[in-house]
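Review form for a predicted model. The reviewer records the input and the model, then writes brief findings.
Reviewer: anonymous (R2)
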Amino acid sequence: MPTPTAPRRPLSPAATLALTLTLALAGGPAVPAADAQAVAGSPADLQFFVRDATTGQPAAAERLVIDYIAGRLNTIYDAQPSGPSFTAPGVPVKDIGQYVLTLWYQGVPYWWQKRGSDLLAGPLQLDVFSVTEAREGLALTGLNVVVRQRGAAAELEILATIANETRPQATVLLPAGTFALPLPAGAAAVEASYRRGPDPTPVTVTVAGPRAALAMPLTPGANQVRLVARAPWDDVLELAVGSDLAVAAWSLLVAPPSVLIEGAGLLAPDESSAPGYVRRPGPPLAAGESLVVRLHAGTPAGEPEQLFASEPESATVAAAPAPGEAGDKGGGLPLPLAALLVLVIIGALVLVRRSRS
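Model under review:
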């Protein structure tokens, strides 16, 4: 006769919690293949067609990358297309998912954000543009030059918007520099990037003397670039503002506000200046024209300004009244009366103790 087995006791709450944590650390129970597929999406053959919108003809791209957006970009496809019409086989796609497509054509990246349903619907047409070196349709429509004093150095940040109105529409790119911006003497750590896709794209910068040439692809419409640099600033910083493209509008923002700004043609300080900065708009500039601004160092940035340094010594400063002083709204007693009350209390305690003894 088999030996009877003792009934299993139910797990205590502590044991249940320990088992749950153990399963979680071990990766949990195995997920059925169907459930795992639902998380990543079902493999599908995606069809694409690339067209050069400049010529209206089919175009052979160099590379296609598809990223799935799930808190961050997760690459699910990266390959070289076989021709203008091609199929990306076995790509895991969710109908409601969000995806970023990056396609390179003639060395220039283009981006699209699509839903999974768009990718699954059938051949997806991706329009790109021919690359040209003709610059007739280019102009700087906006230019903000930001200068921050950091001790004996200047931190320079240039934010430029370049319009590409080339007809027929095309991407303008010159390997030696699509356009140029002036830099102060001794500028170093020069970097630039533009942002049309999900992340900033670096721009090749060639510094030659007092100018920086940016080999940035300018697609049809508005393009924005950010350039940063550092330059020595002992007492006076000479800064040229302009470009080898026409500048329709620009402004200079300087910090701290104690910096003295000199420049012929600069307009009066703008009332819309950001806190801690002085903003001076400038006049339109023709291609190749520049306006030289002289900046005289002020109170070093990063050090607290002496707010009352300019007040005369005889100036009266109103201080908050201390507790017990006139003007205190808490009902405190004047000092002599408070001392008398303390003595009375001490005397009463002494009398009570003596009477009990």
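Findings: The longest strand covers residues 138-150.
Further findings: The domain at 138-296 is CATH 2.60.40.1730 (Immunoglobulin-like).
Recommendation: see findings above.
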